[in-house]
Amino acid sequence: MTDDAERTVNLRPGDSAGWEDSAGRNDSAGRNDSAGREGAAVAPADPPRADARDDANVYGRTPRSERTIGRDLAAAGFLAVVLTAIGLPAAMLWQILTPRVEFVIVESGRWASTETYPSGYVEGDLVFAGIGLVLGIVAAIMAWTAMRGRRGPILLLGLVIGSIGCQVVAWKIGANEWQAFWDAVERAPAGAHMWRPPSVLFVELDPAAAWAALKVGNFTTALDALQLGALAVMALAATFTYTVCAGWSRRPSLRTDAPE
């Protein structure tokens, strides 16, 4: 037996496997190199591009949701409902902050103010408008910040409708308090002192009368029945604030996840 044969026989199984693996790699590398030289003229295929949503997840951005008119309308409707519901606590705040005018009952059904020129008549409108102004600014900022994925004119429409609805609810609650006060005045005995609740004086809102005037073509009467007055303060403040936020946005779509 030759020296080469003896060395081959004395190899351990692991050494033998290493020789075979090394030989296999060398042989495979040779075939790949040969195949590469033969097909050098063929351009390699481009790797598949990752989906934009996967890229957004890699870079830590929230994937952009599909934007449709239906989803924007749903978001605007939700905002309008929430703002309208805020009319209840707004009415309670209005009733608390507005000073009341004191009356004394002269005789059954007749009353007289204890002050010559009470300021409570005007302060009711001023406090109501002030609450609407603050709520409009806050509502616009919250809508711009919390609903950034639905920014646009449709959301602004929901903001306007909800703002008007909020103040209409507060106004109606005040009107019910007003009516309850006059009912109590009629039943109160002479000499009793009562305090008039706040009310909005410069408002003329009667949708039924406006619709009846529109059906006969009387547009002037219809507009007279839709005088919002102080009921439009919150909507105007919200529109102005939302428009200012949109004007300072660097993105045409107004969405923070869209490219600049």
TrEMBL record:
Protein name per its UniProtKB record: DUF2567 domain-containing protein
Keywords, sorted A to Z: Membrane, Transmembrane, Transmembrane helix
Organism: Glycomyces rutgersensis
Biased composition regions of type Basic and acidic residues, renumbered to the chain: 22-36
InterPro entries: DUF2567 (IPR021213)
Region ranges (Disordered): 1-63
Transmembrane segments: 73-97, 126-147, 154-173, 225-245
